[in-house]
Amino acid sequence: MLGYAPASLDRMLRVTRHFCARTLSAPRLRFFSAVLFAALGCQYGGSAQAQQVRAPAGKEAVAALEAKTQSRKGDITTADGEVDIHYADTRLRADHVEYNDKTQEAVATGHVQLDYRGEHLEAAEAHYNVSTGHGLFREVRGTFKVERQPNAEILLTENPLYFEARSVERFAGDLYLVHRAWITICDPSHPKWQFYAPDARIHVDRTVALINANFRLFRVPLIWLPYATAPAGRKVRESGFLIPDIGQSSRKGFILGDAFYLAPVPWLDATFGGQYMSRRGFQERGSFRAKPFENTSVEYTYFGVDDRGFLNPDGTRSPQGGEQQRLELQSLLPRGWRFVTDYNQLSSLTFRLAFADTFGEAVNSEVRSAVFFSNNFRGFSLNFAGLNDKSFLTLPVAATSTTPAIPATSVTLRNLPEARFGSVEQSPWRSVPLYFSFDSFVGAVHRSDMQIDTPLSVSREEFTPRVTVPVHFGPWFGVTASAAFRSTRYGDSLDSAGLVSGTAITSNTGEFTVELRPPAFERFFERAPNKDKPRRKYKHVIEPAVAYRYVTGLNHFADFIRFDSDATLTDTNEVEYGFTQRLYRKDGDNQPQELISWRFVQKHYFDPTFGGAIVNGQRNVFQALDSISPFAFAFGPRNWSPIVSDFKITPGGHYDLEQILQYDPQIQRLVTIGTLLKVKPYREFFATVAHFRLNDNPALSDLPARPPPQLPLFQQPLSNQIRALAGYGNETRKGFNFTGGVGYDFTNKTLQNQIVQVSYNGACCGLAVEYRRINLGQVRTENQFRVAFIVANIGTFGNLRHRDKIF
Hints:
Among the domains are: 218 residues, no CATH class; 215 residues, no CATH class; 78 residues, no CATH class. It contains five helices and 45 strands. The protein has a 29-stranded antiparallel β-sheet that branches. Strands 1-2-3-4-5-6-7-8-9-10-11-12 form a twelve-stranded antiparallel β-sheet, with no helix packed on it. The radius of gyration is 37 Å and the shape is elongated.
């Protein structure tokens, strides 16, 4: 982190330089006498002698000194030739040492080496106290072992921290004050990058602080840093300025920005930053995270742009600025209660399209928020909630000399407040297969769009008791029947002209469902045994299923306001039938693994108008239809649903495949194709391809000749798009890494998104280059070039951030 020092250099590097005062207590006096007595009986010279001296009273450490020659005079031991002092976890070596037995202080010269756990120093001269750990070293080279917590977004290295300095002062607690220091984690003989600082403070396993430093690449100074800190441990967070962001964009101009990271306590942090864009204006970002209690977490993010807009030919500007924010709060409360908040706010779709970082974020036109307070107990569920769903439909159109301005359109659905109470199926008698359950809710709802704008609070209530009877005819056949009565009341309704009316509307419906589970067909296969491989078995299963559903009582479906899916229930008389095939594999005594599954299903509607709910010539969306397909397929009466085929190959490891096909027998055409393929054929190579095609609008030839056919008034958009991503390695892998992706729209013949990212990571640094193109029509067509120099264990210099998503 970078920033200006809040205090003077002396204050920032302040440490306690006074040792504890020594008093000659009775135990110390006895110890001193023993040492003096031992000294009188020892020799003053010798060869390769070892001497042990006990620490002061109250400590158990013993200093052991070995050397080729040594002599003693009073408390001073003089040793020469491969001098080696061991004291607890400390080891001091030198050519010449003068050691004071009383103070445990050593003056060492010539090839001085100090080792303490993961710390290693080499110096020409040292004054070191083996007991307190305080010492002064001159002409120093050193290494510190740094352990970092794994992080998928940062290049990490096992290299220690290398440094060279004119002088180093060490203090207890693994604290070093370094003067005229060169610091790096690269090979010290040929460092690719290094920091130079007149003064530095190294707190082992915590942080490295540099004063008036500069960053050098291949020994060439690039960046001056008045004050900088970097982590040097597994769990280190410290407040300060982050690495500046500098770049250039054809749409934004020259970009200059920075951010401040604040971590006042271990359970809270925040980041506040901004960017200046010479062609557009100012951009602000902020985030806040907190976990004040074990089961409570809070996270808030903000992104906004004060945009001047591009200059139009007539001299006016069209700003596209705005803001978006998100608040997430989760808390587990006593007695099983849970509180969750997921609040999202977006000022306009234009803002998201213009300034979103990725194509996937830009084209997301839905903004959903939810707050709920829930408790599940003894098979019951109690929920208090507030929901808001806003979907942006169109962008605003500016006025011209001949046409007026057209505002943006959107649909807002709100349930606030709302209380729901229900239960799972429960049987009051153990011996009788009769299960009871219920669902109920009461609350206020609101809808606002181009045609409907209800009052802010429309009351709504519903109560649905249900009874279920499962019957098994042996282990091979099962029947489950359920009946429900649903009573619903809405405070407002729609009149015959489609306008909101204050007249309340009620419905009382009866629902009956029967599910048949015929016996599954199974067959086992076994591969020939192999001595080198475990025994492998296969099982092929065919699971047929039939379900009949009947709903009646909804005679005024067109009068209900569509607030959510609860308001899309219609009369229906239908049967759903199909089968699911599965292929399992089992190796030895391991658990079976599903390799292949294929679901094949269709519905037949005995009532093609669904009790009069079908409206000819427009898309019809309600529960009886979208329960089998998420895409609208009914533009008039329907007897048959599309045939849905869902095929999956999921062996894991090298490849996965899923393909969804929908064939409409009424118009005799394949209307939906969805394919997802993931492969990892060799080592670090990977590829993902996703293709989706939708075309279920009927043509004149698809409609009956009598009466004369008419095309539906509403044609839903066609879709034929492909996304492909291939690469080798990943962003933090050592060596060469490559990622390339493309998104193409065949219908509009448009290259929507394209990305190429190449990087090389060495032992201590790396370089990454990226080209990205986003094409969103008139709102935004942008080519981005990004580059970053990656410093292991620290972060990146440049405008390419590793956390940026591909799509």
